[in-house]
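Recall from the previous lesson that a structure prediction takes nothing but the amino acid sequence as input. Here we apply that procedure to Class I SAM-dependent methyltransferase from Saccharopolyspora halophila. The sequence below is the only information supplied.
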Amino acid sequence: MSREFDVLYGASGVLETSDGRSRALRGERWCDEPDEADRALLDTCAGPTLDIGCGPGRLTGELAARGVVALGIDTSPLAVRLTNGRNGPALRRDVFAALPGAGDWREALLIDGNIGIGGDPAALLRRVRGLLRPGGVAWVEVEPPGAGVWIGGARVVRAGRGGAVFRWAVVGAEAIEALGLAAGFRRVRVTELFGRWFATLTSNPDDLDSVRPEADDSANPMWTMR
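The prediction returns the following tokens.
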């Protein structure tokens, strides 16, 4: 299990993408307790909440500890075990497979770059929109402004050894609006929280102000994309 843990969540390693770029993997943060940005986001979650690509379960586990109905899903059996170890319910499941509660989730989380899952952010957001109830909210972590949309191949490299290539995508803050609207969401708001960037996608514009995370606007500028 320790070798599998190192491959998936070890602190040292990079994600190499077919455009020639390398991005540091954040294994230590994924395995740690929720940080300030995580907590600000989770404060808005009343549940039921679906954590897509839950990884080691820091978000699902925290929601469960707060008494919020939540479910983590991940294709990694280790991720499911680690999430269960945090007393967070989790299933080994692909987001495009049959899922419990489809069409009735109040919130869906795509955090830690998980908008890249499958290498097709448009299809992923359409799927997420279909998993939510009317008026449901998707929280999507995105790259800082300027990243645009990139789709291609990626692999995890650790200690000079690369894993299998898989499809991946990167979405910047300025690009999420068009993707969200095309997927059937009605309004998108992008927020910077403690140096990380999140988009709030809702099917009901009237609900957006009531679910946005609180932040110090002087340090974390916010704007609404229409």
